[in-house]
Input
Amino acid sequence: WGVFSILIVGLAAVAVSLMSMKVRMEGIGPESATGPIWFTTGVEFDMLRLQTALMGYSLGGVEADSVRTHFDILWSRVSHIQRGAVAEKLIEYDVDMAKYEQVMTALKDAESQVLSLDATAADRETAEQLALMFDQFHTDLRSISLTVLQQSISDANEMRGSLLGMASAQIYLSMVIGGAVILLIIVFILDSVWSVREFKEKDALLHKAQAADIAKSQFVSVVNHELRTPLTSIKASLALLNSGAIGQVPEKFRRLLDIAERNCNHLTTLVKDLLDAEKLTSGTMKYDFEAFDLSKAIEEDIDDYQSYAKAFDVEILAKGIEPGIKIHGDRGRLGQVMSNLLSNAAKFSVSGSAVEVRLTTRDDRAVISVTDSGRGIPENERSHIFDRFHQVDTSSARERGGTGLGLSIVKAIVEAHKGEVTVESEMGKGSTFYVNLPLERSA
Ligand code: ADP
Output
């Protein structure tokens, strides 16, 4: 931009100086034909011509009319020189204008004599005297012409000087502009080269990132597949052992079997969450949208999670579930949302407390709220708990069987339903998670 500004300013300056040079150059032409020197020498020569005519007349070789013509020409020249632009210029050159007035007076004095020339002997003598009378003005007229000539020359020199100055200024300006243009071209070329290089680097990085992403997705799906199958069979085996169907398990083994089953459940949740998170990031999560009764669905979810909550000595209460609220969504995925919110509420509740679930409508939205009376979420953490793998207190969250993925999955699923999930919390008093979803007719 700097170079560009210099260029614009430079061009404007060149244009202005060229314009003023043009105006001055235009003034030079007419100056030569109408300049003051042309008039002063004109008067001088016409005076000479009149004198020559008078002398010629006195000797008998020139007609009286010819004398009168020269007299009129001189008269008109002298009166012209005393008026307008010519007079102004002469005053500017310090010319003594009184000299022309004297000439004019002499012309006026001689007028009647010149008009009455009549080829008589007396007339011839008068003509001679007049010729001699006009002689007295020669020196002054000559010196005026010289003064004007000198002034014109110094004027011309001054103009030449300023023209030269302007020409050099233009040369410097052209050099600056040329330099700026070259600089601009260099900057442009370098910028293009850098952009191409940067583009290539970014392209290579993008390819690497895409390849890494594909590899990661493949890895996650392979791991999921490879883990899920053995996990299902371990879970089934443990459940069989625990059920006592293949024989009574000694009490000291049961404790170990319980630990094994609990960890197996954690691992199953982790694998499921990982798979879902991967699907959400790669955009391959599938939704089966349909109209369904959200009120009923939530009551079912509460029932399903009652036994899970009991393990933490917590009860889930349906507090004001408005009946018959219908939405358009994926029943299974919204069940996953409720499962995450309810399990979190139970996990982070104080033992012996209750989790309250509400469902109501506001405007054209269904609003679900899950309230616990647990430890609460610190204010600076509230905006981060929806990030992947973010846990407020890592060790206690892990202890309670968390992956840090649950709320990020909740957020993604809710947003895919054009909904919103928010949290309100008070430290030491508990938290409420709100999920609002569009009602069926506006979905
Ligand atoms: P996790 O699997 O660890 O529960 P989530 O993504 O579901 O992962 O939750 C992220 C973190 O948010 C939790 O580890 C916990 O620290 C915090 N959190 C979520 N729900 C609650 C809640 N009801 N009360 C207190 N903290 C909560």
About this structure: The first helix runs from residue 2 to 34. The chain has a mean pLDDT of 88.
